Structure formats: structure tokens, C-alpha cells
Amino acid sequence: MESYALLIAAAMNAGTLLAIAALGLLINERAGVVNLGAEGMMLVAAIAGFATAVHTGSDVLAFAAGMGAGSLLALVFGLLVIYLNTNQYAAGLALSLFGTGFSAFVGIGYVQAKLSTRPSFSLPLLGDLPFVGPALFRHHPMVYLAIALTLALAWFLYRSRPGLVLRAVGESPESAHALGYPVRRIRLAAVMAGGALCGLAGAYVSVIYTPLWVEGMIAGKGWIALALTTFATWRPARVLLGAYLFGFVTMLQFHLQGQGVQIASQFLSMLPYLSTIVVLVLISSNASFIRANMPASLGKPFFPGS
């Protein structure tokens, strides 16, 4: 039973970084902007957060540095695609490639660096319960923050006026502009907020999840987070559930290896990415379902006065 509790805990931990990044990308896409640069933003944020943690010893400052790095890259991306009307897909891919190379260059001096001993966390009383304690109540506060962010974003999108305006900008920017809303500024704010969350996820990877720096350590998680938004049909609660599902698939390989299951390690390592492809294929097979849930102006540029 203990091994299953540890599997659940590991799945939640792995799903947290996917959930935070995917929630950021969901904000982008709800505003009508597709950002394919999540992988690059998370890598730059990972090295920014790790370097800050090495020099200051503060996890809070490390998370702030990661969010700042992600938000800054998102700002550059937003200016390019929102105000200069460059192609969103090409700019996003360029951002991803830039982040991969830049993080590798900056991180050369941090490959051998080590962080101080990571603190352990446990909720009083609940953490001591059998099975559910180690499974659910001994996590880093960021795990619970991801759940709170999901609830807050769901309320924001469906229960608040600014959230309704954001959705309107993603559905029909022309109508929102006609009503007097600054569509481009709203989109830029959404892109920067999404970048900050991607940055937070990147810093979480290098500071908490695997407290070290290795070139390319995000290892495709930015792309999985991007796929999660489609998998979740652009709904926050489904993003969290999908993140935990992918986190479970990711950690299942280690659980099976620990149980002595004779399966090639290469096959187990590709399970998260294989499951991502399968899920996207299944969802994409129903085009009408996608159209009914996808923001109508997703990926489409907006030209005021046109």
C-alpha cells in the first residue's frame, strides 16, 4: 500500500508543473493567442530560478525570478504577434528555440551547482494519516497552490466581469473592440500572465521537482502543457485533472520498474508522450466538438479599425 501512496504523491508532484504551465497557456488561448514557446520560456525560467536559488538560498526569490523571466519573454512574444502582427506559430517556435539555446548557454556554469537541502513539508495531523497522509498531505505548498490557481482561474473566467471580457476578446475581438475594450492591451496582459505561470512552472522544476540544472531538463513538458489545453477543452478544472493523469503516466514507469516489471525502459520513458499523441488524436477526430469549445478567434490576428 505504501508504494501506491508514493505513486499517487509522485503523480501529483509531476502533474503540478504541467498544471501551472497549462493554466498559463489556457489564459493565452482564452484571449485568442497561441504561444508555442512554452518549452523555451520554461527552460529560461528554470535556469533563472535555479541561479537565483544558488546565489540567494531563497526559494521565494527563485520562483519570482522564474516568473519574471517567463513574463519578460512573453512580453517580447506579445509585442511581436499582437502589435507587429507576426505569425503566432512561427514566433512561438522561434521563442522555444531561443529559450532552449539561451538557457543552455547561460546554464553552463551551473551544471555542477547544488542547492541546500530541500525542506520537507507535511500538513499537521493530516500528514500523519495512514495512506492518505503520504499520498495527499505531504507535498510542497506549490502543489496546493496549483489547485488554488485552478479554482481561482475558473472563478475568474466564468464568474467575474474581467474574465468575461477576456473570453469575449478570444471569441470576437471585433465585437469587444466595438464596445470600447482595448483588445490588444488585454491580449498582451493575458500573454504576460500566461508567461509568468509558465515561468513559475519552469522554476518549480529546477528548484523543487529536480533540484539541479541540466541542459534541456524540461524535456518536452512545455509541449505536453500546450497539448493539455486542447485535451481539457480550454477549461481549468479539466486542465488540472489532465495534468494529474499525465503525471500518473509519467511516474508509472518508475513504479513498474520498482515492481520488477520486465518492460524496456525506453518504452516506459515514451509513455507520457505517446499518451499525449493518442489523446490529441482521439479529441481531434471530432472536429465539431473542438469547434464548439475552442475560442473562435484562437490564433487569429486582430487589426483595430480594419
Which features would summarize this protein structure in a list?
single chain; 306 residues; mainly alpha; ABC transporter involved in vitamin B12 uptake, BtuC; 14 helices; ABC_transp_permease
Overview of this protein structure:
It is a multi-pass membrane protein. InterPro entries: ABC_transp_permease. With 306 residues, this protein is mainly alpha-helical. It has a single domain (2-293), classed as ABC transporter involved in vitamin B12 uptake, BtuC (Orthogonal Bundle), CATH 1.10.3470. The protein is built from 14 helices and no strands. The chain has helices spanning 2-30, 38-56, 59-83, 88-106, 132-136, 141-159, 161-171, 173-178, 183-209, 221-231, 236-258, 265-269, 271-284, 287-293. Helix 2 packs across helix 10. The protein is globular and about 60 Å long. The mean pLDDT is 91.
Write the layout of secondary structure elements.
Elements: H1 2-30, H2 38-56, H3 59-83, H4 88-106, H5 132-136, H6 141-159, H7 161-171, H8 173-178, H9 183-209, H10 221-231, H11 236-258, H12 265-269, H13 271-284, H14 287-293
Helix pairs in contact: 1-6, 1-9, 1-10, 1-11, 2-3, 2-4, 2-9, 2-10, 3-4, 3-9, 6-7, 6-11, 10-11, 10-13, 11-13
Number of H- or I-type helical stretches: 14
Distance between the termini: 63 Å
CATH hierarchy: architecture: Orthogonal Bundle
Secondary-structure content class: mainly alpha
Low-confidence stretches: none
Please summarize the sheet with the most strands.
Answer: none
Rg for CA atoms: 20 Å
Write down the overall mean pLDDT: 91
* Fold-level CATH name: ABC transporter involved in vitamin B12 uptake, BtuC
Number of domains: 1
Number-wise, the strands total: 0
**Element order, helices and strands?**
HHHHHHHHHHHHHH
- Beta fraction: under 5%
As a percent range, the share of helical residues equals: over 70%
CATH class call: Mainly Alpha
Membrane topology: Multi-pass membrane protein
Organism: Roseateles asaccharophilus
Keywords: Cell membrane, Membrane, Transmembrane, Transmembrane helix
Subcellular location: Cell membrane
